[in-house]
Amino acid sequence: MQELSHYIDGKHAKGGSGRFADVMNPATGEVQARVPLASAAELDNAVARAAEAQVGWAATNPQRRARVMMKFGALIVEHMDELAELVSREHGKTLPDARGDVQRGLEVVEVCMGGPSLLKGEFTDNGGPGIDLYSMRQPLGVVAGITPFNFPAMIPLWKLAPALTCGNAMILKPSERCPSTALRLAELLTEAGLPDGVLQVVNGDKEAVDALLDNETIQAVGFVGSTPIAQYIYGRAATNGKRAQCFGGAKNHMIIMPDADLDKAADALVGAGYGAAGERCMAISVAVPVGKETADALIERLVPRIEKLKVGPYTAGEDVDYGPVITAQAKERILGLIDSGVEQGAELVIDGRGFSLQGYENGHFIGPSLFDNVTPDMEIYKEEIFGPVLSQVRAGSYEEALKLTMDNPYGNGTAIYTADGDTARDFAHRVNVGMVGINFPIPVPLSYHTFGGWKKSAFGDLNQYGPDAFRFYTKTKTVTARWFSGIKDGGEFNFKAMD
Ligand code: NAD
Fold it and tell me: 397 C-alpha to center of ligand 1: Å?
């Protein structure tokens, strides 16, 4: 069986702890590799080496650092199909979806190619008599990225590209369920000219993460994963004096107004609800049609579309709509939640529980499920299901639909389908959610904007990628300078305005 490694000092390094996790093939349910789980001592050694390497990297001028990103971007393009296959092999998503995973990460690398302009400081000429002020953005030192299983390329790239471009070294701790893409990206960075030790990929579980949170050299932690872990990591990192941004789970609502184009809304819901088997933090998992007529008409349009969905392994061709969920435990949990929906009185319009695929009986496949008449007290509404399950909650009015969305503890993404600009504008203005789509189902902002949820979907400051990332991964130093020209008065003892 394939034994994976860490990536330390520009090369692969065997695990030394004796502990491993199985990396599954979600389509067959078989173990296809094992990944080493780092001990605290291995983690600390990787950090110490990164700290040494960071000094020279920070002293490399920003344009040269950006050139590494230029070569890295070109290598990602060159290896796009290979990277997508690595994603699909461990995650199970379809190849076109895996290419999207790599592409949306690549776009952040592309912004980093122009990193020097985002690292420029600020200058005030003559802020007082003979006084100039300037602010510079300096790297933090060694920072950490902890990433989830569901975007094995995109989220590591969202973390590492801005962090490195800013002159930091990074310890990347990818998901132990899908570690191979991060290891391959690290190899490509070495090929692109990144000095050894500046990116260390350390595989592991809670033991490595805790060591990282307690390591005094680590200055900042960027986390993406489930809400309970995000909150835990934020708390422990902040207590230890680290800068932290921790992005968590989601329950994204789409409001469908009576004036919406219902065919377009139904198409969007099917893609956003079932794509990647629902394992996206920006998946739409709750449809909220306004009015009985809208709700009935929407169900009528959803059912034939959902029944047509093709579920299968990524190797079955490009017309597969979605693949298996990540683990047998995830499958059991999702099936249990569907059971609970039935028990608690929701109407199961399409039941995906009995799904089985010939030749892949042990794979983690689940057919698409659709619930109608879901109410907010049900488990299927309260839990982030993270599976191919769409719940319809009927609302009597726009205000009721808006309130439902706003009362939900999560605030990652939301969408509204309507033909009325006034309603759309009102929704975008009032809703307490970080990313809003108007007639657009998965509003992941482009790489030169930034990504981040509100409420329980994010803890800490600033968003991921875009200008916010350049603020997160640098600290500001402001210099107030006066150069004397001639004879000056003696010292001044009053704290006063610069007039
Ligand atoms: P997860 O929280 O189980 O794991 C995320 C990372 O944390 C992994 O690297 C894992 O090894 C580590 N980890 C897990 N348990 C830990 C513990 N007890 N202590 C310390 N570290 C621990 O999440 P996941 O299942 O890999 O990913 C799915 C979740 O991520 C979903 O909730 C999804 O909504 C969320 N997500 C959020 C965003 C976002 O930007 N808001 C993006 C993608 C995914």
Answer: 35
